[in-house]
Amino acid sequence: MTIEERIIAGVQEAVKTLYGLEATAQQVQLQKTREEFEGHLTVVVFPFVKAARKSPEQVGTEIGQYLTENLSDVVAKFNVVKGFLNLVISDAPWIALLNDINANERFGFQPVTEASPLVMIEYSSPNTNKPLHLGHVRNNLLGSALARIVEANGNKVVKTNIVNDRGIHICKSMLAWLKWGNGETPASSGKKGDHLIGDYYVAFDKHYREEVKQLVAQGMDEEKAKQEAPLIKEAHEMLVKWEQNDPEVRGLWKKMNEWVYAGFDETYKMMGVSFDKIYYESDTYLEGKEKVMEGLEKGLFYRRDDGSVWADLTAEGLDEKLLLRSDGTSVYMTQDIGTAKLRFQDFPIDKMIYVVGNEQNYHFQVLSILLDKLGFKWGKDLVHFSYGMVELPNGKMKSREGTVVDADDLMDAMIADAYEASKERVKQTEMPEEEAREVARKVGLGALKYFILKVDARKNMLFNPEESIDFNGNTGPFIQYTYARIASILRKAKEQGIEIPAQLPTHIAISTKETELIQKLNQFSVTVRQAGIDYSPSGICNYCYELTKEFNQFYHDFTILGEQQEDLKLFRLSLAKAVAKVISLGMRLLGIEMPERM
Ligand code: ARG
Predict the structure, then answer these.
(1) Beta-strand relationship, 383-387 and 351-357
(2) Burial of 93 from C-beta contacts in 10 A (0-12 / 13-18 / 19+)
């Protein structure tokens, strides 16, 4: 039984004995004692006042006395403030708890079993006409953190990605490459494949706008010019050929997409994200058409005179939604229906989470209704994990103008900055070059990941590289540094031949600050659970930061290796070890690696 469970049982017993009241465990409200009062846990006594027919203060005092007498191994002291009974927990249960934390490799996590629900999480979902950018970085970090958090809460998780590999945008890159590429390849140019294709996408746009400008100068209306420019017409012809399975166009498409995937893989690897199953729109859009036709037959959708197929969602308070164009071609929504179909065929999905930017809120509102109508059992409750835009201080990202913040460049820059910042320390510690590079990778990426994940996902944000890498403050490197400091203490202990026992004796007298630190460690379980309920990686960030700060205060006030009393020294080492472990468990949920030295 946990400390909380024992107190709840104790209070139930107390009110039964004292007032003849049968209270359920739910009626016993237990909270963490507020900072300004003495105590660890607080019992709210108001629910018992009526049955007791006494003042809240009296009831609190009576229950407090009962607990100190009958639960003396847990409750050491108490005080009553209005209707709140503040309990000071004795040292032994805290030490026992610390022992438990140290013994449990998956402390704070729920087990995943055969019977666990299956949650599919989609994130990343790039288009193959350009490399990943800062927005994708936020998406990937949120998605993969969410996947780990959901799994830590006892769910089977399938991480998935839907790659938009077909459409007019890809044809633009292909066409530009044919026109101006001179057969350039990733190998011949030394460029990553996704960057190479992205460059041709930009080139297309540049030439295209030039054409539009000329047509407008010749007196054509701008809207018309945008449609009449030879380049866009040619791109459309290419798309038609693609749809007709033209071998040449398909061959080029395949070749160029392969280049892009090789590039994406590198980016994903550096970012530390992965997928269990990747879907491609070129495979799913036809399935979507089929599913829409099925819905049409069932009378869920209707056909207009021009042949187009629509869903009427006015009863749901939304508008009418196009599902198939009059020429029979599919739209974005059609593809998503097809993807859902394939996914549901492949996995017994209980819950589906889509990590997609908030500019698509309406799309997912509609998708949920459509999937529900079409009989997907998870459709109605699908989760659109909707996140806000991320920008760098120098303005909005715009890929078409070629000023996009590239994901690879950003990660490289972060790692380079971390390396630069570590130079002095590296000299002092005589860290080998190879390790220094590896530490810089962990710290640079840790800075980036933490800074992005600590912000409430729904909010727009500014990524500030300088601030993110600051060693003081609410940053990844601050937490990593504390972890490395603990690792160094533990190394020194080992060098001194000190062995930290797996189980400490529980009779050691410890201070309030120490018991509070154990209590903070214990909160990790609740934090993980709450993050799973709220889908909130930022909750984990906050917790890691608070734990780190509390440890640093403790470390400032107490000596560890310098402690003369042997059992106390072992206790503090054990406490430090548990802090390092919980920090790393938390940070690992965020995808952040911990350096053993910094
Ligand atoms: N590729 C799309 C885009 O870049 C995002 C896809 C989101 N996922 C989905 N199932 N619709 O806008």
Answers:
(1) parallel
(2) buried
Distance 390 CA to ligand 1 centre (A): 17
CATH code 1.10.730.10 region(s) in the chain: 407-589
Confidence band, pLDDT 50/70/90 cuts, at residue 400 = very low
Strand partners, 387: 357
Q: How far is the CA of 356 from the centre of ligand 1 (A)?
A: 7
Considering the chain, tell me which residue range(s) the CATH 3.30.1360.70 domain(s) occupy.
Answer: 3-89
Yes or no: say if 571 and 95 are a contact pair by the CB < 8 Å rule: yes
Evaluate whether the domain defined by 407-589 bears CATH number 1.10.730.10: yes
Residue range 568-598, pLDDT digits in tens: 999 999 999 999 999 999 999 999 999 999 9
Please tell me the predicted confidence (pLDDT) of residue 329.
87
- Whether 125 is in the pocket of ligand 1, judged by its Cβ within 6 Å, is yes
Mean pLDDT of the chain: 95
pLDDT of 359-398, one tens digit each?
999 999 999 999 999 999 999 999 999 999 998 876 544 4
- Grade residue 406 by pLDDT with cuts at 50, 70 and 90: very high
Taking residues 236-265, report their average pLDDT: 96
Ligand 1: does its nearest atom lie under 6 Å from the Cβ of 161?
Answer: no
From the CA of 389, how far away is ligand 1's center (Å)?
Answer: 15
Mean pLDDT to the nearest integer, 533-548: 98
Please spell the DSSP secondary structure of 19-56, one letter per residue.
H-----GGGS-EEEPPTTSS-SEEEE-HHHHHHHTS-H
Give the CB-side neighbour count of residue 550, counting CA atoms within 13 A.
Answer: 23
CA gap 221, 404 in Å, rounded: 30
Tally Cβ neighbours within 10 Å of residue 452.
26
User: What would the DSSP string read from start to end of 467-484?
Assistant: HHT-SSSSSHHHHHHHHH
Report the pLDDT value the prediction gives residue 417, as an integer from 0 to 100: 94
* pTM for the structure as a whole: 0.94
- Going from the Cα of 353 to the center of ligand 1, the distance in angstroms, rounded, reads 13
Closest-CA residue, ligand 1 atom 5, reads 125
Structure tokens at 186: 């990733």
CATH annotation of 3-89: 3.30.1360.70
Residue 336 beta carbon below 6 angstroms from any ligand 1 atom: yes
- How much is the CA Rg of the chain, to the nearest whole Å? 30
Cα(435)–Cα(461) distance, integer angstroms? 33
- Condensed to tens digits (0 to 9), the pLDDT of residues 89-120 reads 999 999 999 999 999 999 999 999 999 999 99
pLDDT for residue 399? 41
Burial 7-35 (b: 16+ CB within 10 A, else e): bbebbbbbbeebbebebeeeebebeebee
**Among 125, 137, 165, 349, residue to substitute to test ligand 1 (most atoms within 8 Å of Cβ):** 125
Residue nearest to atom 10 of ligand 1 (CA): 336
Q: Rounded CA gap, 84 and 73, in Å?
A: 21
Whether the pLDDT of residue 401 is over 60: the answer is no
Residue 328 reports pLDDT greater than 90: no
Cβ atoms of residues 446 and 465 within 8 Å: no
Distance 363 CA to ligand 1 centre (A): 10
Residue pair 389/137 in contact by the 8 Å Cβ criterion = no
